[in-house]
Amino acid sequence: xxxxxxxxxxxxxxxxxxxxxxxxxxxxxxxxxxxxxxxxxxxxxxxxxxxxxxxxxxxxxxxxxxxxxxxxxxxxxxxxxxxxxxxxxxxxxxxxxxxxxxxxxxxxxxxxxxxxxxxxxxxxxxxxxxxxxxxxxxxxxxxxxxxxxxxxxxxxxxxxxxxxxxxxxxxxxxxxxxxxxxxxxxxxxxxxxxxxxxxxxxxxxxxxxxxxxxxxxxxxxxxxxxxxxxxxxxxxxxxxxxxxxxxxxxxxxxxxxxxxxxxxxxxxxxxxxxxxxxxx
Length: 280
Prior knowledge:
Layout: E1 9-22, E2 25-38, E3 42-46, H1 53-60, E4 68-73, E5 76-77, H2 83-93, E6 94-97, H3 111-121, H4 128-137, H5 153-165, E7 171-175, H6 183-198, E8 202-206, H7 210-215, E9 218-223, E10 226-232, E11 238-239, H8 251-254, E12 263-267, E13 270-274
Parallel strand pairs: 3-8, 3-9, 6-7, 7-8
Antiparallel strand pairs: 1-2, 1-4, 4-5, 9-10, 10-11, 12-13
Helix pairs in contact: 3-4, 3-5, 5-6
């Protein structure tokens, strides 16, 4: 587990809401998220398709603004910040891996030059040995001269992860970073992300992949735009209660309340929910 010093907050969310508007109406992707993302941890956001994972990830990476609520990323108020300030924040302090890996790459540059370019953007300059080492971490040392168009989808995905980790940014956000990888290459990527967290980076990943979930320090499960549970490594799963008092029950608990009603009792420091006596 990460040290106390490393596990400081990188992101604060309070009552985070995201609404998408179209000609056919509104879609509520996120419905009031309260969340703190800590440095030194690999945090996985899991949930079914349509649960709001990608919407939340874009907000955490400061690539979008919330419709309502408060969001602070690396000390920057995303709601109030200028577009220029957010652009500089993304370029210099946040490593981002898009779900479509090619969107994270420069199409005209070789793998080696991709890393050099990102290093320059973040204010540094990698030595040749550092470039080789960064590519070796994700198994691409033999592909240093290849441009994205010469690489497979899995190779592009691994290169996008290597680029996100260049110069050790304080926050790395990755959307399904193992989706196109076999077991061996997924393990390389997960080892690289875990290593970055151990060095003090806040790593946030969305995934359906149980390989990723098993390697996480913290797993947050999202359902219908609300965080429904939280599990820390070697810990017990917890149901989350948001700032308005809402909670989400797991399906096995919901099955006990088929009519959506419950009797609530507060006594002796405990809260008990039971099906109403008059329910069939």
